[in-house]
Amino acid sequence: MTGIVFRGPKDPSEFPNWRFETLEIDYDRETASVWMNYRVDAPQCYTPTMLAELLQLRDSLRVLGMSGRIEQFPFRYLVMTAKRPGVFSLGGDLATFAAAIRRQDLATLVTYAHACVDLVYGYSQSLDLPIVTLCAVQGQCLGGALEAALAFDFILAEENAMFGLPEVAFNTFPGMGAVTMLTRRVGSALTQQIIMSGQTYTGRQMFELEVIDQVTSPGTIRAAAVEWMRDAGGKKWRRRRAIAEARRRSHPVTHDELIRITELWAECSARIEERDLRHMERLVRAQKRLIGSRQNAPEGEQLLVSSSS
């Protein structure tokens, strides 16, 4: 069974010098923002180790927000982004999924899925802190990575970033937040279209569909995010926080709803046919090739792993 070892929160007195295997934490005083970066050398999907660290960071930020350390490091924004060129994240750990399905290990799928929706739910509630959350995307943001992004208050992306929910390609569905979060943003009809098509969309297309909030030129995501947060006097931050809270009140997300949907995902995925499982395994191999190719790829080159791989 896949183990997700839950870890206690980091010591707030050591912020911003927290150390993780898969994440890098930065603090920007000008914008009062904490940046959660996927490391360049981190796995390009949500492995059990990365999930454990993301949950630990969630708990650490909550402790930080209630500590006296917050006076020294004011905290208004949480930004999720990646330092890997060309890849934000490829989403769920398909190797773990495929191995669990092969051995009919539903418990591993459920354990993994519960950890994911615990994280997504925390993001959807802005970690229960008086902050605004921003997801800043460059490169490929697929599957579970898009589900995590959708839980943030606002999404900013480079116009050539690539978004998609490819799960339909192996006869399952995105079960870790996409149904709930997309419906809250764009309604049920467009949500069904995006999920059932398995199509890949550019950042520009996602902006036109009103899934994301703002686009920027290729190669400018970090500067654009800083500019978006710049705010003399905090007027923009207060307005954004109010808008995000109004969205939560008008379209509430419950942990129970996310759990019930993700358990449907686990049951559906555990029953996929052999041909679908082989397709999933081919996609795992394609992701591994992507990791290897990325080491030698020219900067900015797109190496898209699509649902047709």
Automatic annotation (TrEMBL):
<protein>
    <submittedName>
        <fullName>Enoyl-CoA hydratase</fullName>
    </submittedName>
</protein>
<dbReference type="InterPro" id="IPR029045">
    <property type="entry name" value="ClpP/crotonase-like_dom_sf"/>
</dbReference>
<dbReference type="Pfam" id="PF00378">
    <property type="entry name" value="ECH_1"/>
</dbReference>
<dbReference type="InterPro" id="IPR001753">
    <property type="entry name" value="Enoyl-CoA_hydra/iso"/>
</dbReference>
